[in-house]
Amino acid sequence: MERCQVVGATVVDGSGRDPVRADVTVEDGLITRVGASGAPGERLDAGGLTMTPGLIDAHVHLGLSSPIHPRFSFRISAAELAADIFAAAGATLDAGFTTVRDTGGVDGGLVTTIAKGKVRGPRVLSCGPVQCQIGGHGYYGAEWEPTELWHRHHVPGLSALSMMSGNADELRRNVREAFRRGASFLKLCVTGGVVGGHDRLTDTQFTVEEIAVAVQEAAARGTYVTVHAHNDEGIRNAVEAGARCVEHGTGLDEATATLMAARGVALVPTFAVVEQLLHDTAGAGLDESTRDRVLGVRERMAEALAVAKEAGVRTGLGSDLIGPAQDRRGEELRLRANLETPMKALVAATKTNAEILGVAGEVGVIAPGMRADLVLWNGNPLEDPRLFADPANAVLVLQAGRIVKDLR
């Protein structure tokens, strides 16, 4: 549509300000006015609904939307992998998320395909394959499988989980290859993980000097490095090396949080995946031993969130959902609302995430000049944050001014 007015909604603009009743005028994909307007154009009646900016998930894995172990043992065809990825992309949009940062698993062809409108999905910012240490987190080949065969698990143009590096020179080559294939930022695994193939949460991976190589290559392209990190030593190594964002941050302590705040390093906690793995490990395509790794992570991550907020660390929001069950991405906002407030959870998923992703001038708040990425909710999620978790409550979704979901 060229011009329309969404009228009668209660507008929560993403900035943290109190909600207001206002009309929002959209023209050529941008918001041109917040407030009453007599300009001609289509009128969308949103009486009784709550409007928010399109939500942003700063930690997704669209390429891991098939069960993980079958996915990496050649038991799922490329056609089925693509079908699962496309379904996850559409479900993400239907849940009210109009922008996501894919932190490992998709290849550049998928990003382009969604951007062209050939597949329903959010705007995707991608690191391409994750950069991993040989034998570290992100490798899911069999123990007997030579590392040099790992790239055969990639499906060029569709999915590519990780690249293995044995030293700084190999890492430099791999990050340059990731950028060649369309990455817009880099992600490194600097500790072990919960969903690990051959690693432990307490493992620290890559040296400060190696991480700094990726930081240097990212800076040369005007972008940044984020890191998968659970234990505090790995987090501190990444911060010392110049990383700009930390994913998970489970073992973050006060001293490292203070350092992060001083250097402007952001944190993206990921609670939804912890809940997913605690309650439906098999649904993610993982064996029950994974649950043992998860025990205690939720509590430690909540403590890390509090430590980060106290230190003044910019804190975003990411779901990190894996496997086929990626339709309730808004569960992350519900969980965060229980730890903070619904308003703070919403700001983390809009304004703050836009800042972390480097797109704050385009999305994240409802204001003139911003992209018209808007969600109309059936009810008020600030009063009942459970509404965020059920995609059926996102009754109208606009992406750059275009209606992409309408359940009215």
From TrEMBL:
It comes from Amycolatopsis dongchuanensis. It comes from the Bacteria. SUPFAM superfamilies: Composite domain of metallo-dependent hydrolases, Metallo-dependent hydrolases. Residues 50-404 form the Amidohydrolase-related domain. This is Amidohydrolase family protein. Transmembrane segments: none annotated.
